[in-house]
């Protein structure tokens, strides 16, 4: 009887750790360098993220702008409040089918996000996900 009880407890504990909810991604996250915070939110059934804090929000006495954007018309928009994660859908244990915009170089990449504890593994890529870069974000709140 003790063995069955122990196995049952182990199974429940493992399921609690492995099982993820689609909304586990919601909240505020520090980027890997801790120079910015991104708030992940939900619109309909999809997930998005916008920059809500920058360690250095100003450049030459004015708010930092999206000067690297490939679309000239968008270069005057502020980095603060910029939506950098777009259109993610939860599937099993990851958020996929979305994009991430990098204001440092003005490029948009395909992206997949996985969650491990209080961290997000944010992988931006072009073409195939194994050819890309992963950034680890940590929960801010």
Span between termini: 42 Å
Q: What CATH first level would be assigned?
A: Mainly Beta
Number of domains: 1
Mean pLDDT: 90
Describe the protein in words.
This protein is mainly beta. It has a single domain, classed as Lipocalin, CATH 2.40.128.520. It has 1 helix and 10 strands. It has one helix spanning 2-18; strands at residues 27-30, 36-43, 46-54, 58-59, 62-63, 83-91, 94-102, 107-116, 119-125, 132-139. The strands form 2 sheets. An 8-stranded antiparallel β-barrel has the order 1-2-3-6-7-8-9-10. The longest helix has 17 residues, at 2-18. The protein is globular. The model is unreliable at 1-17 (pLDDT under 50).
Keywords:
single chain; mainly beta; Lipocalin; eight-stranded antiparallel barrel; 48% strand; globular
In short:
The chain is mainly β. The protein is built from 1 helix and 10 strands.
Q: Mind sketching the topology for me?
A:
Elements (H helix, E strand, L loop, with lengths): L1 H17 L8 E4 L5 E8 L2 E9 L3 E2 L2 E2 L19 E9 L2 E9 L4 E10 L2 E7 L6 E8 L2
Antiparallel strand pairs: 1-2, 1-10, 2-3, 3-6, 4-5, 6-7, 7-8, 8-9, 9-10
């Amino acid at each position: 009887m003790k063995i069955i009880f122990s196995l049952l407890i182990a199974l429940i504990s493992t399921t609690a750790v492995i099982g993820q909810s689609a909304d586990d991604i919601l909240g505020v996250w520090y980027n890997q360098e801790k120079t910015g915070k991104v708030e992940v939110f939900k619109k309909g059934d999809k997930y998005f993220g916008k920059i809500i804090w920058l360690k250095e929000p100003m450049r030459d006495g004015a708010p930092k702008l999206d000067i690297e954007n490939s679309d000239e018309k968008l270069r005057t928009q502020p980095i603060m409040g910029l939506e950098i994660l777009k259109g993610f859908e939860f599937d099993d244990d990851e958020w996929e089918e979305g994009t991430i915009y990098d204001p440092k170089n003005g490029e948009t990449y395909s992206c997949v996000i996985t969650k491990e504890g209080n961290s997000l593994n944010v992988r931006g890529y072009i073409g195939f996900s194994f050819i890309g870069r992963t950034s680890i974000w940590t929960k801010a709140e």
